[in-house]
Design goal:
single chain, 13 helices, 27 strands, binds adenosine-5'-triphosphate, binds magnesium ion, ligase, ATP-binding
């Protein structure tokens, strides 16, 4: 459904398949259900599901749920929704790391039996202190040479609940002098009494990510385990577990790291997103200013635009920043094709067409998309009083202002040409309150008979027929590209003007409408799926028509 640029991962796959034509592409997307997915996750989803689809393989959705205190059913369900919404299907391949607890436990016993793991009584602080530094080797735990039988007994009792949280850990027995800190006898199980959203109180020991991940990959027959660059240093550990248990494992997955997506003007760490929600800086995970997929969805970003974005940014091996403008541009491109056009006035100025009879009504046929006749037409009602955008009038306009000014003419979109004859002002404030205009009755769908040129076209709504709507104008959540950089707290970089409300007048066809529209000359707008009501429609601005941030 979209074109894939080649990338280094594809090259690896192509090479593997050239050497072994039976090599399958089995990938997984492994989110932890400890928050909502964001646009960074979309990159990983598109990559993993996209590769699997292209090579006739499959992609598993695996909920990597090994931290009971942070995970919940709510998050797990939201993750499934988001992946589906983005347009990907995992079929019967939905898995949970928690499904493997019994197997992972058995393999941990195997490691103990092989002298490759031991039960350690050091507490977290002692362990940190003995870990050494990049330039100094660590010190070995006094429990490192505990006999196998004793390790097994202690580990079984850890599982049975004989010990308090923190009393013991199970550690891999690798190398305290390794230059790679990840190999300095890392913890692979910890005691943790916490109800798990799936396994309840069945377990009081939980496996660590670095242990659970390679073995879950192997269990599922994953061939390419794609993760972000910060796991590059963990790869030797990933491979170590696979090697130690090679004879017991059904498959040998390969970890490949790629650059994560960093998007300017927003934050993407789940911790920060959770803080924004909890501290009320936004209205929820699905606040349309959030980079979460639920937020972008509620804002009106089409999933096809997000897929196109992931395609456009590509997959590489070095971290960088992508500007929000790139994402917005993909949204514009998609909506330009698909969004029906309509008229809405965000900042209304009343216009009375004095030449038009008071009782007269007309309905104009308006195309829903100027380049796509197949999208049909709609009726737009017209009468003597209309509203136009306040910014489409200037009392003393420069020569190149092709909109309304005293004595000037303009075309009403889908309607007549009108001329401004009189400007009515509030006697006290001097504010323009009304324009009195006359129309040229011969100009409906036709140019003026006398050949005079009228350059500008403006949008409008009929005063009698227009409906009120709340319009939410969203801007970037942060006012700087890299929030938190150069100062202590990213929250100080929040954009105070990221939400602006206005009370708009919309053409009647919009009141019943749902989905995305282009409000002509104004931007793309999406019917808010939560707050909008037929009597009081609410629209979110998805993006402006042009990139107003570009110089
Ligand atoms: P956070 O660090 O914010 O908690 P995470 O990486 O721990 O996020 P996971 O739920 O573990 O979140 O992520 C699931 C998958 O999505 C992982 O394979 C991870 O590499 C990938 N992923 C997460 N963030 C990004 C990103 N910004 N760009 C690309 N891939 C990402
Ligand atoms: Mg995380
Ligand atoms: Mg993670």
């Amino acid at each position: 459904h979209y074109t894939h640029a080649t990338n280094f991962i594809r090259n690896i796959i192509e090479e593997d398949r050239a050497a072994d034509s039976s090599r399958q592409v089995i990938t997984r997307f492994p989110p932890e259900p400890n928050g909502y997915l964001h646009i960074g996750h979309a990159k990983s989803i598109c990559l993993n599901f996209g590769l699997a689809a292209d090579y006739g393989g499959r992609c598993h959705l695996r909920l990597d749920d090994t931290n009971p205190e942070k995970e919940s059913v709510e998050y797990a369900e939201a993750i499934k929704d988001a992946v589906r919404w983005l347009g990907f299907q995992w079929g019967e391949h939905l898995y949970h790391a928690s499904d493997y607890y019994e197997q992972l436990y058995a393999w941990a016993e195997a490691l103990i039996e092989r002298g490759k793991a031991f039960v350690c009584s050091l507490n977290a602080e002692q362990m940190r202190e003995m870990r050494g530094t990049l330039t100094e080797p660590g010190r070995e735990s006094p429990d490192r040479d505990r006999p196998v039988a004793e390790n097994l007994d202690l580990f079984r009792r850890m599982r049975a609940g004989d010990f308090a949280d923190g009393a013991y850990t199970l550690r891999a027995r690798i190398d305290m002098a390794s230059p790679n800190m990840n190999l300095r006898d890392p913890v692979i199980y910890r005691l943790q009494r916490h109800n798990h959203y799936r396994t309840g109180d069945a377990w009081c020991i939980y496996p660590m990510y670095d242990y659970a991940h390679p073995l879950s990959d192997a269990l599922e027959g994953v061939t390419y385990s794609l993760c972000t660059l910060e796991f590059e240093d963990h790869r030797p550990l990933y491979d170590w577990f696979l090697e130690q248990l090679a004879d017991l494992l059904p498959a040998r997955p390969r970890q490949i790291e790629f650059a994560r997506l960093n998007l300017a003007y927003t934050v993407m760490s789940k911790r920060k997103l959770l803080e924004l929600v909890r501290e009320g800086h936004v209205q929820g995970w699905d606040d349309p200013r959030m980079p979460t997929l639920v937020g972008l969805r509620r804002r009106g970003f089409p999933p096809a635009a997000i897929r196109a974005f992931c395609d456009r940014i590509g997959v590489g091996k070095s971290d960088g920043w992508i500007d929000m403008g790139v994402l917005e541009d993909c949204v514009r491109q998609e909506l330009n094709e698909t969004a029906p056009r309509a008229m809405a006035v965000l900042d209304p100025l009343k216009v009375v067409i004095t030449s038009y009879p008071e009782q007269k009504r007309e309905e104009f046929d308006a195309p829903n998309h100027p380049q796509k006749p197949e999208m049909g037409t709609r009726k737009v009602p017209f009468c003597r009083e209309i509203y136009i955008e306040r910014s489409d009038f200037m009392e003393d306009p420069p020569r190149k202002f092709f909109r309304l000014g005293p004595g000037r003419e303009v075309r009403l979109r889908n309607g007549y040409i009108i001329r401004c004859d009189e400007v009515v002002k509030d006697p006290v404030s001097g504010e323009v309150t009304e324009l009195r205009c006359s129309h040229d009755p011969d100009t409906l769908g036709a140019n003026p008979k006398d050949g005079r040129k009228v350059k500008g076209t403006i949008h409008w709504v009929s005063a009698r027929h227009a409906r009120k709507a709340q319009v939410r104008l969203y801007d970037r959540l942060f006012s700087v590209p890299h929030p938190g950089q150069g100062q202590s707290d990213y929250r100080q970089d929040l954009n105070p003007d990221s939400l602006q409300l206005c009370s708009a007048l919309i053409e009647p066809s919009l009141a019943a409408g749902q989905g995305c529209f282009q409000f002509e000359r104004t931007g793309y707008f999406y019917t808010d799926p939560v707050d909008s009501r037929p009597e009081t429609p609410v629209f979110n601005r998805v993006v402006t028509l042009r990139d107003t941030w570009a110089k």
